[in-house]
TrEMBL record:
GO cellular component: fibrinogen complex
Coiled-coil positions: 93-120
Protein name (record): Fibrinogen beta chain
Taxonomic path: Eukaryota, Metazoa, Chordata, Craniata, Vertebrata
Quaternary structure and interacting proteins, as annotated: Heterohexamer; disulfide linked. Contains 2 sets of 3 non-identical chains (alpha, beta and gamma). The 2 heterotrimers are in head to head conformation with the N-termini in a small central domain.
Record-annotated Fibrinogen alpha/beta/gamma chain coiled coil domain positions: 1-133
UniProt keyword annotations, A-Z: Blood coagulation, Coiled coil, Disulfide bond, Glycoprotein, Hemostasis, Secreted
Gene3D superfamilies: 1.20.5.50
GO MF annotation: an example: extracellular matrix structural constituent
Biological process (GO), any one: blood coagulation, common pathway
Pfam families given in the database record: Fib_alpha
Subcellular location field: Secreted
Length: 164
């Protein structure tokens, strides 16, 4: 059997190789355990990242929904404000301008009436009826002093000013 080994020689050769293989396996076992632990850590890390990514995607979806909701509300408010500014304000301004014009007209009429009154009162007033001698501070005072008839009387409410 040199060229063709017998069962015993084959067994001896395999036994020698088995020792070498066992030594290599024993050397590889700690590395295999470390690799197994490392792969478990990586697996846990990847699972954690996947969960975190799913949570972030859920938050993004929720945030997008909230943004859309608020955007809709802002657009509704903008449309309302635009309508008020474009329609209601001009209408109110026209109404107020009409009121202002009426007030201006009334003021002009009053100013005209005041001017006419001033023109009439340039000269001192002259009475054509006799004024009785009875006078007083006010009508009640004149009545108590004997002014019982309905006519013109001299009234002097303040002694520092002349009667009228």
């Amino acid at each position: 059997g040199v060229l063709c080994p017998t069962g015993c020689e084959l067994k001896t050769t395999l036994t020698k190789q088995e020792k070498n293989v066992k030594l290599v396996i024993d050397e590889l076992k700690p590395e295999l355990d470390e690799l197994s632990q490392s792969s478990n850590r990586i697996f846990d890390y990847v699972n954690g990242m996947s969960n975190s990514l799913r949570e972030r995607q859920r938050l993004v979806t929720d945030n997008n929904r909230v943004v859309v909701q608020f955007t809709d509300q802002v657009e509704e408010n903008h449309a309302y404000i635009k309508e008020v500014v474009d329609t209601v304000f001009p209408s109110n301004i026209r109404v107020l301008e009409g009121v202002l014009n009426k007030i201006r007209q009334k003021i002009q009429k009053l100013e005209t009436a005041i001017q006419a009154q001033r023109e009439k009162c340039k000269d001192p007033c002259m009475t054509k009826c006799p004024i009785p001698v009875v006078s007083g501070k006010e009508c009640e005072d004149i009545y108590r002093r004997g002014g019982t008839e309905s006519q013109m009387y001299m009234v002097q409410p303040d002694p520092l000013y002349p009667p009228y």
